[in-house]
Amino acid sequence: MSLFFDVLSSINNPNQQGSIDQLSSVFTSVQDVAGSQGLNNDQVGSLLNALGGALQPALKQQAATVGSGQIEGMLGKLAGAGGTAALASAIPPQMQQQMIQAIAQKSGLNAGMIQTMLPRLLPVALGLLGMGAAKPGAPSGDNPLLGAFLNSGSPNTTDLGTVMKFAGRFLNPPQ
């Protein structure tokens, strides 16, 4: 849940890009991808937690190779109209294949289904992490949301399924 608190912090910080609209867009995108594959809430949570667990070491490796500033730039491109080229530069295809196998093993879902969903889910997950970036014109600095995701030894900070569960509760509070 600590990563969700970092997401909320990015929404509340006027110098960071996070917004309720952006969180809503991420949540809706995840629901759309899951719905297109007929996944239930438990499967979505398991898939996203496995995605976070596979994404963290992949991004750490990329940050070590190209630098964390470059990773933050790639997050911005993915959140915009960078598309497949930006995705391939952030996470090369060979690394994506390794992620597919790891996610399939951890989530219990079919690797072919994950391969179909990954090009849509990765930009969404990276867009979520990009919410911690500095707004244009704001004092620049590291992205604390991305930093919390990358630098934690706790597996709970990679639980993107938990983040989406709490995002759903935050965006759609019980009446």
What tags apply to this protein structure?
175 residues, mainly alpha
Please describe what this structure looks like:
73% of the residues lie in helices and 0% in strands. Helix 1 (2-12) runs antiparallel to helix 8 (144-150), helix 3 (41-66) packs across helix 4 and helix 4 (68-79) packs across helix 7. It is mostly helical and 175 residues long. The mean pLDDT is 86. The protein is globular, with a radius of gyration of 15 Å. The longest helix is centred in the first third of the chain and has 26 residues, at 41-66. The protein has one domain (2-13, 22-167). The protein contains nine helices and no strands.
Question: What does the secondary structure layout of this molecule look like, with pairings?
Answer:
Blueprint: H1 2-12, H2 20-37, H3 41-66, H4 68-79, H5 83-90, H6 93-107, H7 111-129, H8 144-150, H9 160-171
Mean pLDDT: 86
Strand content: under 5%
Which stretches of 5+ consecutive residues score pLDDT under 50? none
> Count of helical segments?
9
Outline: globular
Helix content: over 70%
Number of domains: 1
Largest sheet descriptor: none
C-alpha end-to-end distance: 22 Å
Radius of gyration: 15 Å
Number of strands: 0
| Structural class determined from secondary elements | mainly alpha
